[in-house]
Amino acid sequence: MPDTKAILPAIATVAASAMLLRSIANDFIPNEFRNYFFSSLHNISRRFSSHLTIVIDEFQGLSLNEVFEAAEAYLGTLATPSLQRIKVSKVTKEKKLGVALDRGEEICDVYEDHVQVESSRATNPGDLNASLRAETRSYELTFHKKHKEKVLNSYLPYILDRSKAIKVERKVVKLCTIDQYECYGTQEVNLNHPMTFELLAMDMEIKKVLLDDLNNFKNGKEFYRRIGKAWKRGYLLYGPPGTGKSSLIAAIANHLNYDIYELELADVGSNSDLKRRLLAMPDKSILVIEDIDCTINLQNRETENEAPSTGKNQVTLSGLLNLIDGLWSCCTDERIIIFTTNHKEKLDPALTRPGRMDMHINMSYCTLSAFKQLAFNYHGLSHHQLFEQIEGHIGEVKVTPAEVAGELMKSRDAQTSLQGLINFLLEKKNQQEIVRPKLTTSVQKKSIHKEEEESKG
């Protein structure tokens, strides 16, 4: 074994010589030559290196890099005690904390027991990328060159799949508006609507059919690809105000875990503006256009070739149809399109045909099954002695679920609440019976007047 006393002086001599050479190089060798020398030395060493590095930038042009987002989500789950700095985040109502590597940190991952990948997060403050960002972030994956195909074809797709599951665990459904003045096109807030299909007051048969359709849609990736159709689905919700159209939309979003994108057609200036906004929507989202019959006066297709309107809004019916059912509709996957209206008969038939609005859901006045659901929601009742009387009145009176819910909320005592609902239904029944004879009398008078004019003629 070498003598320690002999080794230490030798190490000190080598270190002193290295410092002397460095000092001489700094004093007598120009910077340009030194940089060229070290750069060449680095390139030579790279040629003989057995490792390959993949750089994953945060942005691809102006678009977010999906692989970067996936790497950030996945690598955060691998945090080990060896890390010195990690980033933790949580948005309001988000289910779990989000953990990510901080800049300069490195972590090692072993894939399929033999592929070792060293990952690190880097930041380049010098790349302003068209002055939109003060810094660009990236992840670097380093591994042996012999595993290149395995990493590209198996490891990275694995990270993408794992990140999707992680995002689902953390995801909170959001309500978004597509704003043309925002840098990235949307404004969003958390959708704190607690409505679910279990709580939804609507006809049980319609609810079951809709749930089955939504589940088939969500799991229909291979089916839609096999039949050659865009992976989208359209629903038309129609019925009088207060029948639960907005609650149904919230229940659909919570069931699918999709964000809602509300679009005000009155704020859209042209067909091209409409196209840009819809293309800003991501996959797995719900496009909602409420009160489509009165939100905007869509130009009739027969008049679109005439002189253009001088008004602010020039969205045409054909422009809307092309985006929900034309080639542009194929640019995203898993998109739900929902139109709502109080007057289905006012809509252009081209807007409601199958392929655009695949299901027409009648949000009717309160039914017996809807009442029972409301009674259970508000008072935990499945049966009560007053149910039979209430059900008889509901079958005779046009009353919305919102009106029934309003009466059930007036008292926490079930007996008092149900009796108040009976009184409300009786009063509403009397009002409707009074209106009916007046309408009949008016029609009769018009008929008599018309007959008198015909007899005079």
Biggest sheet, in brief?
7 strands, mixed
Mean pLDDT: 80
- Which band does the percent of strand residues land in? 15-25%
Supply the CATH class of the largest domain.
Answer: Alpha Beta
Number of strands: 15
Helix content: 40-55%
Counting helices, strands and paired strands, the structural category is alpha/beta
Give the radius of gyration. Answer: 33 Å
**The CATH H-level homologous superfamily of the largest domain:** P-loop containing nucleotide triphosphate hydrolases
- Topology pattern, helix = H, strand = E: HHEEEHEEEEEHEEHHEHEHEHHEHEHHHH
Domain AAA+ ATPase: 231-367
Protein name: AAA+ ATPase domain-containing protein
Family: Belongs to the AAA ATPase family. BCS1 subfamily.
GO molecular function, one term: ATP binding
What is the gist of this entry?
Its cofactor is Mg(2+). The protein has 457 residues and is α/β, with parallel strands linked by helices.
Give descriptors for this structure.
single chain, 457 residues, alpha/beta, Rossmann fold, seven-stranded mixed sheet, four-stranded antiparallel sheet, 15 helices, 15 strands, ATPase_AAA_CS
